[in-house]
Amino acid sequence: MTDSQLQFDVVINAQGQYSLWPAGKPMASGWSEAGQRGERQVCLDYINEHWTDMRPRSLREGVPQ
């Protein structure tokens, strides 16, 4: 299977950080689906469009840790 045939899910954690996860693989603890599945580049484009501030949510919102 080539990279262009692999399917991924875009996942997000509680801090609003995004990542790619192989489609169909059990979800890692602390992550949930963000609503995009597709080829790697499609998912990376989605992340690029939606994750505009790389700081964790706690820093963006000024929440004390």
TrEMBL record:
Coiled coil: none
Annotated MbtH-like domain residues: 1-49
Matches recorded under InterPro entries: MbtH-like_dom, MbtH-like_sf, MLP_fam
Membrane-crossing segments per the record: none
Domain of life of the native organism: Bacteria
Gene3D superfamilies in the cross-refs: Structural Genomics, Unknown Function 30-nov-00 1gh9 Mol_id (3.90.820.10)
Name this polypeptide is given: MbtH family NRPS accessory protein
Annotated organism of origin: Pseudomonas fungipugnans
